[in-house]
Amino acid sequence: MKINKLVISLIISLLWLGISVDLSLAQPAIGRPDPPKPVATNPPTNPTPPRKVSKTRRTPRNSNVPTSAVPRGKSLDFYVTKGTEVLDNGDFELAAEYFQEADKKRKDRTATPELLDLLDKQIQVAKLHIESDDTEDTQKALNNYLEILKLRPNDPKSREQLPDLYNKIADDALNQKDYDRAVESLDTLIGLNPTTKEAKEKLLPALLGRGEAALSKGKDDIAQNSFRRVLDLDPQNQLAQQKLRVLDLKGLLEFAENKLKAEAYEDAMVKFKEALSIDPENEQAQRGAKTAEGNYQKLKAEQLYANRKYSDSEKIYQVALVILPDDEKIKARLEEIAIRLKPASAMRGKSVWSGKINNPTKLKITGKEIKYEGSGDGSINERLPEIGYLVKKVKALLGGVPIKIVEQPSASNKYTTTISIEAKKPKNVSFEIEWELKRQGKVSWQGQINGRSLIRVQGSFVDIEQVSGIPAKDVSYESDPLPAQEATIKVNKLSGSPEVRLIEAPSSSNSYIAILEIESSSSDLEPLVFQLEWLLK
What we know:
This protein is an alpha+beta fold and 537 residues long. Helices cover 43% and strands 23% of the residues. Strand 2 (361-366) and strand 3 (369-373) form a beta hairpin. The protein is elongated and about 140 Å long.
């Protein structure tokens, strides 16, 4: 009895532990009913799972392949080959299971580096396909398929899906007015299928939109490229034609303005005229063309002047002045040319001033220009000399008021004659100035020279022309203007090694210019000081 109790206690303990036992051991074999047999329970096990490629396999619709279709115990090569076949058939989750089994065989003796490399790529391909099937993100799916094609260039589903994805991305981009993205997607789509008509139709508004956006942001190159591509697709597109005209005009104006700043006046003039052919009413082009042409004529005249072709330069300067009427440099140059081209000076002459004087007044007369210190107005009939001369006499002709000379003309006052009129009340006055040219004068010159130079003295102008060697530096001079008369010239070198000599005396045949030659044998600049004395014949 004690033994039976011990057996029963042992059985209860075993049942508590979940161990199945035969209860017939706890009772006599004869005369006792069998107790009900307990249901055995097994504790759960947790083995470490191998690396998985996908979470679960979803069997394609209408597929008769059971979920346990991957056989066990095959070789690495078998699983890779079979998985690749299933991959080509589009069952990516089943392919993933084959590759999962292959992954367990990495240490097999048949595992070559090439086979393992292929396995790694196929695992990634299967994973990317599953992700692409699961996602609703078009861009992510596209990126996945592009990545698949890098790993597996002939992947059938990726090649099949790309056109649809690019088309959807282009549609989304057009709806969002993201024209850069739309053009990029459509260009790629047309590259995949050059005969696609739908993509080319969508490309037209995408290019127009991109061109407009680029134009508003000042990205002219992108805008121009976009509108030109529109015309390649639709040569009669009026909007693209109009926008290209605007861009062409803008480009021409920018180019012309840059040429104008660089003083390339002829190039600027050509481009401004091209701009006016596009838009005849464009004020910037009109203004620029006028400035460029005026300065172009001015530059031509300056070149002629530098070559001492004074008559020709005068004509061109006058054309330039019509175009640029406020240009003071042109006016000043024309005055210089007038002096240079002035006929032979008279040795003596008379000029008459007539006008009205209201009170004691001084008249300052330079050439024909008159300034008044006091109150008066009038004019002089003949220009006074603008070179060295003396006022011999002032004679009153009308008015009966005292008139006298206050200051003689000289180089220091720019050959201005000052006359005083002592009028007590408003009077009409007239007087005559009798003058005579100075018969002698001198020109003092100094500078640093090298090589051979020519110096030309004409009136108040002293010009230097470098024939050879280093251009002269530190040049200065003081001059009694040489009259337009035949004169005797004497040259005195005061200091310096270079030779200086007269090679041509002033005469009517050379417009009364005295020409000197200076020559230095030094390899460097040398100082020179000389004096030219002139005496009218």
